[in-house]
Amino acid sequence: MEPDYSFETAAQARGYTRIAGVDEVGRGPLAGPVTAAAVVLDPARIPPGLNDSKKLTHKKRELLYAQIMEVADVSIAHATVEEIDEHNILRASHIAMVRALDGLKTPADYCLIDGNMIPRGLSLPAETIIKGDGRSVSISAASIMAKICRDYVMLSLAQQHPGYGWETNMGYGSKSHISALQNLGVTPHHRRSFKPVHNILWQE
């Protein structure tokens, strides 16, 4: 089943005109921010091939990223490692989602959110869609934009902190990343509230 525009069409039938798809990436990694994107597509110019970013090759994601940028209103936002540690990863991902919506050039009047929870502090009418990145093209687009942008952040951090493999593991807890944590120690970009990082700090 490919994602389509049916959720957006249903919202339009209820009188909404600017419908944003919202998704986040980066809940699981041990390092780096959590990144969210909000995307308002033009129904007349939807790039073909949109899908859950995890189902697409890197090359296809890059291609779609450029196409989405050209035809849609896109906003990217992050919640920092400090915010993740202060609140928790779920709350931080919701903070990033609200920021992404706030950053749209023209405000949305309705949003489709991937998952099963509406973020606290969201002032817009919204609906949640479980596995929405594979069901709604607006959420698919948001998943692609968030993934590419977060990957760029991790590639940049990888240059500043070589040895952790962030250029390939994107901060996720791969064997080589855990081993580097034990050998090189914890950087300011590691999430101290996450168990593998917390345990290493505690050992010290």
Tell me what you see in this structure.
By secondary structure, the protein is α/β, with parallel strands linked by helices. The chain has eight helices and five strands, in the order H-E-E-H-E-H-H-E-E-H-H-H-H. The protein has helices spanning 6-13, 58-71, 81-86, 89-102, 137-160, 166-169, 175-184, 195-203; strands at residues 19-25, 34-40, 73-79, 110-114, 126-129. Strands 3-2-1-4-5 form a five-stranded mixed β-sheet, with helices on both faces. Strand 1 (19-25) and strand 2 (34-40) form a beta hairpin. Helix 2 crosses helix 5 (137-160). The N and C termini lie far apart (49 Å).
Class based on secondary structure composition and strand pairing: alpha/beta
The main β sheet shows up as: 5 strands, mixed
Radius of gyration: 17 Å
Helix content: 40-55%
- What is the beta-strand fraction? 5-15%
Placed side by side, the strands forming the largest sheet appear as 3-2-1-4-5
Unreliable stretches: none
- The N- and C-terminal alpha carbons lie at a distance of 49 Å
Number of helices: 8
Kindly report the average pLDDT value. Answer: 96
